[in-house]
């Protein structure tokens, strides 16, 4: 089931540089099988929470179901929440940065510990790197 239009998917792919936001791997194959649009606040909250449909809430993620990063979020939910990839309903996807994964050195299918960098996602469909604040 999908609620996002093809043109929105194109926008998201462009914004996320056709890479999985979580692991940095290039996106290939078919949407819904090899990759999909991920909802940081779950899609089932959409009727109660208008932020669910904000572009800031939507990320390009590899895998579906138990595969790829999609499956990784279910196996390691605390890590996914710490990285801002999965949010509580009370959080605002525009103000919680995403710890974006950097492409691993090779195309292994196993999960690789990543260097992550914080990016902020906007409702308008942009993302900007969060600068480290001095004195922290
Ligand atoms: Zn991934």
Report on the structure:
- The chain has helices spanning 6-15, 68-75, 77-82; strands at residues 35-39, 58-62, 98-101, 116-121, 127-129.
- The longest helix has 10 residues, at 6-15.
- By secondary structure, it is of the alpha+beta class.
- The strands form two sheets. Strands 3-4-5 form a three-stranded antiparallel sheet, with no helix packed on it. Strands 1-2 form a two-stranded antiparallel ribbon.
- The protein starts with 5 loop residues before the first helix and ends in a 7-residue tail after the last strand.
- A hairpin with a 5-residue loop joins strand 4 (116-121) and strand 5.
- The chain is globular and about 35 Å long.
- The protein has one domain (6-129).
- Bound molecules: zinc ion.
- Residues 20, 22-23, 25, 61-62, 68-69 line the site of zinc ion.
- Zinc ion is lined by residues 20, 22-23, 25, 61-62, 68-69.
- This is HNH endonuclease.
